[in-house]
Structure formats: C-alpha cells, structure tokens
Amino acid sequence: MIKILNKIVIFSITFLSLTKIASAEALSAEGQYIFNSLAFYIGGVLVAFMAAGFCMLESGLVTTKSVSTIGAKNIGKFAICSIIFFFFGYNLAYGIPEGGYIGSFSLWSDGSAIDTGYSDSSDFFFQVMFVCATVSIVSGAVAERIKIWPFFIFAVAMSGFIYPVSMGWQWGGGWLASSGFSDFAGSTLVHACGGAAALAGVIVLGAREGRFGAKGEKKSLVPFAASSIPLVTLGTFLLWFGWFGFNGFSQLAMGTFDDVNAISKIAVNTHLAGAAGTVTAAIVTRLLGGKTDIVMMLNGALAGLVAITAEPLMPSPILAIVIGSIGSIIMYFGTKFLELQRLDDVVGAIPVHMFAGIFGTLAVPMSNPDTNFGTQFLGVISVCVFSFILSYVVFKVLKQTIGLRISKEAEKLGTDKAEVGVIAYSIRD
Known about the structure:
Mean pLDDT: 92
Number of domains: 1
Radius of gyration: 22 Å
Order of helices and strands: HHHHHHHHHHHHHHH
Low-confidence stretches: 7-24
Shape: globular
Distance between the termini: 52 Å
C-alpha cells in the first residue's frame, strides 16, 4: 500500500511539474524536444492499435476457413514492414533532395539532437506504423485466395520501395511538396496508395471461386458469410481509436499552445467525420436496400475517417461532417461498382481507402486556401498510378514465378488448412 501511495505521489509531482512547464509562455528548447518526442511516441502507439484493428476487421469478414491465415498475414507483415522500413524504406522517403524524386538505400540511424526539436527514434517509431497500415489495406482486399509467402514478398516491395518513394514526394520534401500538394495525414499518401495497390492485387488474382455468376451478379452470401461480425465491429472501433493518433499527431509537434489546440481540433473533426460516415451509410442502405447494413455502416465510418485525413485541421466541424458523409456515399456506390466489374474486394478496401481517400484529397481546397484542385489532382494521380503500376508488376512477377494464388482445391478446403495448418474455429463453413 505504501509503495502504491509513493507511486501516486511521484506521478502527481511529475504531472504538476509538467503542467507548470506547459503553462509558461514558451517552453524551453529542451521542453519542446520532450513534448514533441512524446507526441510521436503517443501517436505511434495509437497507430499501432490500427494493426490490431485491420487484423480483427479482416478476420471477421473472411469465412471461417481463413481466419488463422489472416492472423498469420497480419502479424507477419507487421514485423516484415518494420524491418524493411528500417533497412532502407525510411531513408528512401526522408532522404529525398528538396524537390527530388527518391532518397537513398541506406539504414535508418538515430541523429537526435536538441536543435532538431524531437527524438529521431520517436519519429521513426511513428512513421513505421504508417507503412504497416498501408500494407494492411492490401491484405484485406486479396484475402482467401493469395498464398501467404508471396504476400510477404509483396509486403517487402510495398514497405521497402512503393510506399516510401511515393510518400517521400510529399512528406519527405520531394517534388509534390515543392508543387504545393497538400495531404496532412495521408488520404492519398497512405490510403489511396494502399487502395491502388489493393486494386492491382485484386485484378491479378481474380475473384474467389464462385463469388460471381456468369453475368457478374453477386452470388448468395451463404458460401462467403463473414466469420464474425462482432470481430469486424471490434476492428472498426480499434481503427477509429487509432485514427486519433494517425491524424492528431500528424501535427508532428506538441510543444506549443498552437500545437495542442491543433491536435484537439483535429480529434474533433476526425471523430465527427467518422460519425457522419456511419450515420450516412445507415441511412443510404436503409433507403436503397430496405435494411440497415451493418458492414456498410462500419465501412462508412472508415470511409468518413479516410476522407477527412487529408485535411483534418482546417475544416469547421460542420464541413468535417459533410466530408465524412460524402466519403461514405462514395464508398457505398464504389462498392456496388466493383461488384458490377466482378472485382472481389473481400473487405471493401478499395472503395474505403482509395475512392474515399481520393475524394478527401481533392476536397482539401474547400478549407485550405493555400491549395488548389489542379495540384491536388496531380498528386492523387501521381501516387495512385505509381502505386498501381508497380504493385501490378510485382503481383504479375510473383504469379509467373513462384505462384500467387492457391489452388482451387486449397481454396475449397480453406486457407487455414492449406496455408498455415491451424484451424481457427471448431465449427466451420
């Protein structure tokens, strides 16, 4: 008991000391260094929760025959992307010359100094979570028919080259940054980039066996029933929770009065956009389908969050609601469009992340007077085309060499038995 009281006292003294520092007119250089580094760390931890969110959402939307495989894919890519980004991904992104196109293939190293304003390690920790999130977008779209090891190889390409290079064009001070393109937290640089890669994978792989009829109509959901809607819901809540780190701490600083106010406003706008996306999807599915579709509601929430990510600071709360709502509508009709094209996106990653992400980026000039539609369009096209083409090539090469898709027999058996040998549920489809 005494030890607990001592800890409480120590915590209270520490908290009061920090409060006193923060209440001063201006923090010292060391104080700003501490708070800015803390922002990166807190943001990184919150974004790390999104890895769990993606895993739960994907696990819930696949059939019971593929749940263990989803777990293996998600923990595997989380580790692989982190290591690859350390070896050369980070410096490909942040080693770009001003106005340039590509950085250097070199190891990340810690060059922390007081005059940089934050710890380099905290920055790396924050940024590596973004690359993990980007690759997670692809994982869900190609689920239930991709082999696990070819997917891991793709994760190497995505985290080690495709994402770092295209992201560096803006956040690394490359040519898009010089042109005036703006994407605050990654509607295009993360979400549309991952969505474009997912589209390439879906095209190369083809649909799951029996998913569509001869004329393209979607077959009965029974053979493809989601394994667990509660897991999908949990995954969405985890992603929503992580988004406060994703968007809020993309302010990249917490050492001034303005920084803290900005983070707080971003949190409000992010939350309202997600809420608006949820409600809009509920209304649309009820009006157009006669029933309130829970999966569409969950993806509507994510679409609203994706749409506001390009500019979560400048809009008014009302505009944030409008952006979230439109993002949700785009997601709904985008999902229907993909089905008409017989493109089998298991989790709806392409309409949620690519379509809503493109809209959110193009909507930035609505609140940010320093941007224009032409430059925003240029950035969207550049990143999406780059990600799609390179991802398509990687998937094609994998298909023609080691093989990309599991056999028809393995697909019927389920990827859990065919790929990992561990059954998730005793009662299966």
